[in-house]
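batch_manifest entry 22 of 60
target: Topoisomerase II
source organism: Streptomyces viridochromogenes
requested by: lab member K.T.
priority: normal
notes from requester: please return tokens only, no post-processing; we will run our own comparison against the previous entry in this batch. if the run fails, retry once and flag.
--- input ---
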Amino acid sequence: MAKKRPQTKAKRPQLSDGEIPVVGAREPCPCGSGRRYKACHGRAAAHAVTELVQRPFEGLPGECDWVALRELVPAATVELPLKGGLPEGVPSVTLATVLPMAWPALRRDDGSVLLGLQNDTASGDISRDLADTLQQALTAKPGTPVQGRRAPADGPRLQDLLDPEGTFEPVVHPGFEFWVPDAENATPEVTASLERANAAAIPTVKLTGVDAAYWCETPEKNHLRWVMPHPEEQLLDALARLHAAGGSNLGEGTRLVGSFRAHGLTVPVWDLPSGVGAEDVEKPAAEFAERLATALATDAPLTPDERRARGGLTNRQVTLS
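--- output ---
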């Protein structure tokens, strides 16, 4: 009987995670493990894509206004400065709350870019999805919309593309005429589309005396919704102190009714009488900001009345993801 020759196993090539290409979920993983891609390196890639980023706009100038424009404001635009300046042939990049046909982005005939903010995203990181759409728009053919897609898990985020020293100054519009360069001479079809969009928009005004506070008008009553950057627990304690002391309102007939969380930040909400406009709450809001700063600096334990007030505020919280 012939002797068996000794078997020698060749070493598998060792690839780093960054060198593993993306293949079909049911195909063998390129790393050589013998397992399917979805059960090997594909598992980490899928998790990176679907994992929810709680504060997607953290680190961007104007984080609170990013949240407001994403969740609260019907029609607004902001000029976006890019790191290293604008590419050749792109005269401007403008963030818009929403675009016609819910397009993720639009490259206009003159080469300028409009980036839509209030769109569904394919992953748990809004910042990465928006950055991917922006990159597509910067190289798209002028005069064409850009469709969304699932951004690569290792792709850049807005924090990588936008100038960290730039400003973020939203301009709130009464309607969506910013969609077209010359709304007065638009076609009847475009005019009708604008009229429908404008009719559905809730009148909204950004306060000028405080940051990220937005007045809006509804048929029953008006509201002030104020996106705040403070840590949630600290902010709720401060609001509870003011509420228990009778200092949480914005004038006669107004009432702090609760708050909600959106993209990692807390947004207190006040009910306002229907006759109270945005200009009427400018001074009360500035005075409230001073009272809030004092309450935020207080670290004494909450009194029984303050704890009850905090419990009421907490029970009236909702979350917008």
